[in-house]
């Protein structure tokens, strides 16, 4: 950085909130412009709202027993899992997988996600709103298109969901309602032609899961 | 009567999990803007904060000094924010401000642009400079407070803030 | 899933002329309930493909998919045949852009990409920029996904090529469709998404913000996975 670009100590004192004193014209102007910029920028910065607190507490509740000083629970306690509104990126671990499959997800849908370990398998959560359905499953390239391999769980509000460990890469799939109606996933990355006159939902999964807003 | 951080941590560890909410609320407010500024995006910052709180809860028994939960959590949060930001940066230009309403006045548009330039310029700082700058200028904290929070000496902090300012000056100079 | 993967490996390792894997493909189809006649017909197409150096597994998967979807057998067969043609075209395209012996998964990825509008020279660009065959397959799939998401094919290809040329880790490449999806969920039009990703692909690395650079503050407190044994403290908490 050239000398010209560095503020003098007087300027820094001014920027710290001190008096402008003998600050030269150009420096003063630059300092004021910087302060204006900071103000404009800061005005647009907001903290996450109180819903964050609810989300964290829901996650914490749903997770495991409270961490204890004794520590032995660590070995048996599954990691809490974060569920973003739609997708769940999670690290793969066999113990976690078992826990996930056995345990239905709570309706208010926010649980923590865990560390991502460097593996080729990632947990992904599928969701579908289908209040009228009796049963819903997801079938795709990861399950040999079996319609009975992955049954989804119904939650409040007619939302069906399931979390599956998927290998990294591209997957094609559809939801199957009541064993016979194939419907696409509006939250997938894309819909493509399946070659039979219908469509398949496409999902590209990276090692860190699926990013969702 | 307000519970101290240490008191809350100890009670949570003794089984009152629900009390963790006190810490979450407290630090959501205290560090929320810092997180948003570090990450560059409010929604992503919320994710980062959520992750950080959960990690903190998860490893609460490893917080050596419950009375200094704030600094301990601050570090977890900062790392989470850097992670999230790196990931976001790889894909999108965070210097952009979201689409502005067409009904804005010229002044408002100008302010938006200025804010966007600052945001982008912040991206060019080192992580340490950005942290220090945000704590100083976005949060408005004193150097003493920042030192307490980050565990870094005041002189080093001042140097980071000064360098950050110089860097921003250069960027602003080039852009306006 | 592991079984399928080793299947692909088998296909890659065994010379195309060998039709020994056909019985396994038949077994797969029969297990899934496909009728004998359809199994025989698809096997013929698969054997044909193998003889031409094309991957057979995706054809079988397509048949299984069709059967699961209760598509009439003659339509399934038609789709499988069409897929084989596309695999053939993809292989030709790749060879034409200077890759004389493309691996099965890359051919499949290229075929699907062509189905979504990518042109031969665009396939070539992606494969050229890829550091490995695995990366090539991934690059093609990501480019195809982005195109299917509404981004212009040439832009999608440019984004992917840039990412691979800059040595971005696979993780970031594979994240692209997710990120695009997130932007779309916020109401951003595809044109703008494409621009953002383009700038992102170039800008992030240029600003020196790649992960690992810049030096993380020391003394990271532990917050890790559950397999940290109790009582074992990490440094710096």
Main interface by residue count: A-B, 48 and 56 residues
Strand elements of chain A, count:
8
Low-pLDDT ranges of chain C = 1-19, 202-237
* Average pLDDT, all residues of chain C: 77
Mean pLDDT of chain A: 73
Content of β-strand of chain C: under 5%
Radius of gyration of chain C: 22 Å
DSSP summary: helix tally of chain A? 5
Query: How far is it from the N-terminal to the C-terminal residue of chain A, by CA?
Result: 38 Å
User: Taking Cα atoms only, what radius of gyration of chain A do you get, to the nearest Å?
Assistant: 25 Å
Annotation keywords:
heterotrimer, B: mainly alpha, 8 helices, globular, C: 237 residues, mainly alpha, 67% helix, disordered C terminus
Q: TL;DR of this structure?
A:
The complex is a heterotrimer of chains A (213), B (176) and C (237). Chain A is an alpha+beta fold.
Model description:
- The complex is a heterotrimer of chains A (213), B (176) and C (237).
- Chain A has 5 helices and 8 strands, in the order αααααββββββββ.
- Chain A has helices at residues 9-15, 25-43, 51-62, 73-76, 94-102; strands at residues 121-129, 136-140, 153-155, 159-167, 169-177, 181-183, 190-193, 199-205.
- In chain A, the strands form 2 sheets. In chain A, strands 2, 5, 6, 7 and 8 form a 5-stranded antiparallel sheet that branches. Chain A has a 3-stranded antiparallel sheet with strand order 1-4-3.
- In chain A, strand 7 and strand 8 (199-205) form a beta hairpin.
- Residues 64-119 of chain A have low confidence and may be disordered.
- Chain B starts with a helix and ends with a helix.
- The model of chain B is unreliable at 93-101 (pLDDT under 50).
- Chain B is built from 8 helices and no strands.
- The longest helix of chain C is centred in the middle third of the chain and has 24 residues, at 73-96.
- Chains in contact: A-B, A-C, B-C.
- Chains A and B meet through helix 2 and helix 3 of A and helix 2, helix 3, helix 5 and helix 8 of B.
